[in-house]
From TrEMBL:
Gene source species: Phoenix dactylifera (Date palm)
Protein name (Swiss-Prot/TrEMBL): Peroxidase
Site feature Transition state stabilizer, where: 70
Catalytic activity, as annotated: 2 a phenolic donor + H2O2 = 2 a phenolic radical donor + 2 H2O
Ligand binding (Ca(2+) 2): 244, 247, 252
EC number: 1.11.1.7
Predominant location category: secreted
Cofactor: binding details: Binds 1 heme b (iron(II)-protoporphyrin IX) group per subunit. Binds 2 calcium ions per subunit.
Domain Plant heme peroxidase family profile: 33-324
Binding annotation for Ca(2+) 1: 75, 78, 80, 82, 84, 93
Cellular location(s): Secreted
Length: 328
C-alpha cells in the first residue's frame, strides 16, 4: 500500500450514503417540474418495470446494490442528476480515473432497453438511474422512498468536470462540508461507502522492517491491524475493503456504531465521530435505525434533485451510453 499512490475514490454501499447524511439549504434546480406521477399517462408501469430489472440483477449479484447507489452519487455530484456519468467514450465523466471503479451500468442500460420497447422515447436515463439506486437500497434492507420524476438527460459529459466536484477520502470535515454545501446538501447529508487500499494509505506508514504501522490514533487498534492484514505493504490498487466490517451487505445504521467504536475506514469517516458539529448526529443515528432511515429518505430525494434538467432542457436518450445524434 504505497502512500504515494493516487487515491481512487472507490466507495461501497453502506458507507456513500453515510458520509452523505451528516451537511440544509437547497441548491437551485427545476425540481418544481418533477412529479411523483410524471409518467402516469406516458409510461404507467415504469416503476414496476425498473424494480423488476433491479430485483433480477441484485438477485444474481448482491454487490450491485452498493454499486448502483454509488453510481447515482457520482452522477449527481458532478453535473447534477442528468445521467452524464453513463455516457461512454474518451474524455467523458465515465472515462475519468475517479470513476474507473464504478459499476452497475448494465442494470441501467437493461432497464432502458426494456422501456424503449414499451415506452419509446419517454423515460430518461437520469430518472432510470435514480430509480435503480432507490430500489437497490430497498432490496438491501433500506427504506422505500417515493421520488419525484421528470428529469431529462444531459448532452454534455466531460472528464474535466469530475475531479473538482468529487469527494476525496482524505478530506477534512470542512472540505467535505464546503463541497456538499455547494450542491445544496447539508451537514446532515454527508455519507461515504467502501474503498481501495490506496484510499486510506495516509493512515499508515511503512515501518523499518517494511511492515505497515498505523499512525492515526482515531483508529481502533484491532481494526487497524485487520486493515494491515487485508492491505499489506505493496498491495495491488485493485484490492478493496468494506467500509462496514460488520454488516457490509445490509443497508442499516451499523456504520455509525462503527464510527463510535473507532472503526471508520477513511479519515473522512472518522472525523464525523470526532467533530462536535457532527458527533451528536452520529450518536443519534447509531441508536435509532428508524431515525436514520427517515433522514436517509429525505437526503436521498435532495441528492436526486441536484441541478436536474427538465422541460426543454437536455434530451431523452435512446441509449444511456451515448447522447443522441443531432438529427434524433
Amino acid at each position: 500500500m504505497d502512500p504515494k499512490l493516487i487515491k481512487s475514490f472507490h466507495y461501497s454501499l453502506l458507507s456513500t450514503l453515510l458520509a452523505f447524511l451528516l451537511f440544509a439549504s437547497l441548491f437551485p434546480s427545476s425540481t418544481s417540474q418533477l412529479s411523483t406521477d410524471f409518467y402516469s399517462l406516458s409510461c404507467p408501469s415504469v416503476e414496476l418495470l425498473v424494480k423488476s430489472t433491479v430485483r433480477s440483477a441484485v438477485g444474481s449479484d448482491p454487490t450491485l446494490s452498493g454499486k448502483l447507489l454509488r453510481l447515482l452519487f457520482h452522477d449527481c455530484i458532478v453535473e447534477g442528476c442528468d445521467g452524464s456519468v453513463l455516457v461512454q467514450g474518451n474524455g467523458t465523466e465515465r472515462s475519468d480515473p475517479a470513476n474507473k471503479s464504478l459499476g452497475g451500468f448494465e442494470v441501467v442500460e437493461s432497464a432502458k432497453r426494456l422501456l424503449e420497447v414499451l415506452c419509446p422515447g419517454t423515460v430518461s436515463c437520469a430518472d432510470i438511474l435514480v430509480m435503480v439506486a432507490r430500489d437497490a437500497v430497498e432490496m438491501a434492507g433500506g427504506p422505500s422512498v417515493l421520488v419525484p420524476l421528470g428529469r431529462r438527460d444531459g448532452r454534455v459529459s466531460s472528464s474535466s468536470n469530475v475531479r473538482p466536484n468529487m469527494v476525496d477520502t482524505s478530506f477534512s470535515l470542512g472540505e467535505m462540508a464546503q463541497l456538499f454545501s455547494s450542491k445544496g446538501l447539508s451537514m446532515d447529508d454527508l455519507v461515504i461507502l467502501s474503498a481501495h487500499c490506496s484510499a486510506f494509505s495516509e493512515r499508515f506508514q511503512q515501518g523499518p522492517k517494511g511492515d505497515l504501522v498505523p499512525v492515526d490514533s482515531s483508529l481502533e487498534k484491532d481494526y487497524a491491524m485487520e486493515l494491515v492484514r487485508q492491505c499489506p505493504a505493496g498491495a495491488s490498487t485493485t484490492v478493496t475493503v468494506n467500509n462496514d466490517p460488520v454488516t457490509d451487505a445490509l443497508f442499516d445504521n451499523q456504520y455509525y456504531r462503527n464510527l463510535l467504536a473507532g472503526k471508520g475506514l477513511f479519515r473522512s469517516d472518522s472525523v464525523l465521530a470526532g467533530d462536535s458539529r457532527t458527533k451528536a448526529k452520529v450518536e443519534a443515528f447509531s441508536e435509532s435505525q428508524d431515525g436514520f432511515f427517515a433522514s436517509w429518505a429525505e437526503s436521498f430525494v435532495r441528492l436526486a434533485n441536484i441541478s436536474v434538467k427538465t422541460g426543454s432542457e437536455g434530451e431523452i436518450r435512446v441509449s444511456c451510453m451515448s447522447v443522441n445524434d443531432p438529427g434524433e
